[in-house]
Amino acid sequence: xILLTFNIVNSDxxxxxxxxxxxxxxxxxTEENTKSxxxxxxxxxxxxxxxxxxxxxxxxxxxxxxxxxxxxxxxFYNENSAxxxxxxxxxxxxxxxxKQIRGIRQKEVKYSLEELKSLEFNYVSNIDNANILFPFKRxxxxxxxxxxxxxxxxxxxxxxxSQLPYNDFVFQVLPxxxxxxxxxxxxxxxxxxxxxxxxxxxxxFRKYGLKMPFYRRxxxxxxxxxxxxxxxxxxxxxxxxxxxxxxxxx
Length: 250
Description:
alpha/beta; 10 helices; globular
């Protein structure tokens, strides 16, 4: 099973000019990137899970309704919001969609499973807070989904062969043929592969005059769209099963 997920977050890249870029403009970029992702998923008839960053959820109501209407899962991504804020946004979004928000993803700020359970989350999908050079360090850890205190804990996936994680940076920089082989080989020995990328990776940084290190500009923008198309074409061509996170876990 392939669990394809997208973190919908604003880019924090600085601008090349002194004029800067407003939060409204950053939000517009995020919306356009997400719409591009939705179009590609629709063409290939594949459903995914979208983790919307808490601080922008209330500003993306129309987009969130469109994501849900297309059959994708809405979940949350928390960067640094307080529990009370998360609780409030969760209730508002559930009322908006008439659906329960089951999942949350964390990275730097991580609340306990007991705290997340109190907000009625059913699963947590944490991301390792790692240095940019870390993705190419060989890893070894358990990738089995476990239930703790009533909350399912979904770890990052790792290729048992290359020992590379299926994170945003690895997807962006690896040649797609190598990445596809990695996915195919992993599924021979693992029950699932959890893949995640960030919406800001689909940004044309030159177009918006945003400064980004070379290793983050590499294969970004339209090239990321092309890589996503290639991955989904591969998935359908090999008839590999895909699932939204909530469906697979429960």
